[in-house]
Design goal:
The chain is an alpha+beta fold and about 280 residues long. It has three helices and twelve strands. The longest helix is centred in the N-terminal third of the chain and has 31 residues.
């Protein structure tokens, strides 16, 4: 009797063990199984593209992208974004998004990168004014101008340097060919700035009537400083204005200081002054 009970218990234990092992096996199998990823295609740049480039099938391509990870403004077909210009440079394999493209009516090239209500104005510079080549498209600069004020308060003309524009974006940095005084062609660096119509007029006047200088600034530094103008007189006189002289009055310099000699006679010391 006891033997039969032992056999029944052993059989039950074997059945329970088989059920548990089957459950554990299926659980591990489901946990380690690779779920298929549903993908779609997304448009990216096939090569590095510069600002103003018209995108088409020659410089775009499609790559797989997870369908459950959409990106706002992405394109799934090349024909949906073809024949539009880039308003920002993109790297190879970078996603082409709606926010990086100009409107269809804008065309291509530099005009497509100019926002409505803004203007692009080019000014000729040299290597020093162009901050030794560090002024490139996308950088931010301040524009300073140095000129002369006619009839200053102390008489005559006086030089002044003033910051006329702050936090201006550089659209393009290139070169153009001009003729020198002898008619020979020479290469002149040109910087194209994105400005408002009012600032365009000020910049044109500054580059024509004065000498401009660009000051490179951090692209995240957008604070307007409005620095005061610097006068030549204040710069070289330590900030102290020169004394005003009445017209028609001859300036008489003060007499020179006398010589002082110490005379010793025995135990007696005394100072005697003699005119120069």
């Amino acid at each position: 009797m006891n033997r039969n009970r032992m056999l029944i218990g052993l059989a039950v234990a074997v059945v329970v063990g088989l059920l548990l092992s089957t459950y554990v096996y299926r659980a591990f199998k489901n946990a380690t199984a690779v779920k298929p990823i549903i993908s779609q295609h997304i448009v990216v740049a096939a090569v590095p593209l510069q600002l103003g480039t018209r995108v088409d099938a020659n410089n775009l391509r499609l790559i797989p992208w997870p369908s459950n990870e959409p990106v706002s403004g992405m394109f799934t077909r090349i024909e949906d974004c073809a024949n539009r210009a880039l308003i920002t440079p993109v790297a190879e394999n970078e996603l082409i998004l709606e926010s990086k493209l100009a409107s269809v009516q804008s065309g291509a090239g530099l005009p497509a990168t100019i926002p409505e209500g803004m203007r692009a104005l080019s000014v000729a510079v040299n290597e020093v004014v162009g901050v030794a080549g560090f002024v490139i498209p996308g950088t931010m600069v301040d524009v300073l101008v140095t000129g002369r004020i006619a009839g200053s308060s102390h008489g005559g003309d006086e030089n002044i340097t003033r910051t006329i524009l702050e936090n201006v974006r550089v659209l393009a940095a290139g070169q153009k060919i001009e003729q020198d005084r002898e008619g020979k062609p020479q290469t002149v660096p040109v910087i194209t700035l994105l400005v408002t119509p009012d600032d365009a007029a000020r910049l044109a006047m500054a580059s024509t009537e004065g000498k401009i200088q660009l000051a490179l600034r951090n692209t995240v530094d957008t604070k307007v400083m409005a620095p005061p103008a610097v006068l030549q007189e204040a710069l070289f006189s330590g900030g102290a204005p020169a004394p005003k002289r009445s017209p028609g009055v001859k300036y008489v310099p003060p007499p020179p200081s006398p010589y002082v000699v110490e005379v010793i006679t025995g135990n007696k010391r005394e100072n005697k002054s003699f005119p120069q």
